[in-house]
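EI: anyone free to look at a 197-residue chain?
SC: sure, send it
EI:
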Amino acid sequence: MSDTPVIGVLALQGDVREHLIALASADALARPVRRPEELAEVDGLVIPGGESTTMSKLAALFGMLEPLRERVGDGMPVYGTCAGMILLADKILDPRAGQETVGGIDMIVRRNAFGRQNESFEAAVEVAGIEGGPVEGVFIRAPWVESVGARAEVVAEHGGHIVAVRQGNALATSFHPELTGDHRVHAWFVDMVRAVG
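SC: here you go
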């Protein structure tokens, strides 16, 4: 891998464009990923926010679930925001019928834990590993992490709840940093991808 890693954004549903912009600003070559052959060509992957049940069904429909599980299991760096966090959880506390996860982080996640769409909010979040003060987090029908296993590291909390977790090459946040213009979380993830290369 060159110094400019190729990072995909899972483009089945959700705020794909914003992640592509944030990754490009963090010096990655960003591209949408919809098919297994596109997944095979990237050094890392972002799973965006959106609707987690719809995303898991579309991933199954597009033949992406197993390839995603394989690549994440093999250590491909992956970053999930909001619905992406739910997809990276090994367990969902309150799954919808037929909802599956990719897994990869030893955590139990509660969907829509911070409330409905009209209860969305922004908050300053201190993230361990990110310098320069708190990150502005946008919480939209956001999940939180009920608990983590021994291998997962809590990197941020808000209001007494876990909102960011890292396990090896996998990172997940409840909030959307791609909506703020502050691209430090994406830069951190790009560095994680470079470290693997």
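EI: Residues 117 and 131 are 30 Å apart (CA to CA).
SC: 👍
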